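haha ok so turns out i had the wrong file open the whole time. this is the CORRECT one, sorry everyone. sequence first:
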Amino acid sequence: MSLADWLAGRKSHAGRLPEGIDELRGPTRGVIVLPRHLAFPGMRECDVTDDITRRNMYGIVLTQGQRNDVRRFLNPHLLRTDWPLISETLDPKLRGACERRFKLGARAAAEA
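then structure:
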């Protein structure tokens, strides 16, 4: 973690992710209301059954959320399904941390 991140109170990517994909408890349907620290204007309520809205919300939670947010809002099955599209929009360091921690993308194929 850089000094700037430490001073700003930001955790590293790995520090904000749960230990494994089996810790994710997000719903597979319904509307999620994101807490204010994650919500962008006009993007507070997210219908999990809407693919585009869900992928956007997952990206927000992965990039801005804390460990408990990731655990609470992301569903393991939906994350695996959406990963090829979500991963393209993430910072490479975050993408790598997610792939290692959750065994997604190329890591999942290599370990299968």
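Confidence is low (pLDDT under 50) at residues 4-8.
again sry for the mixup
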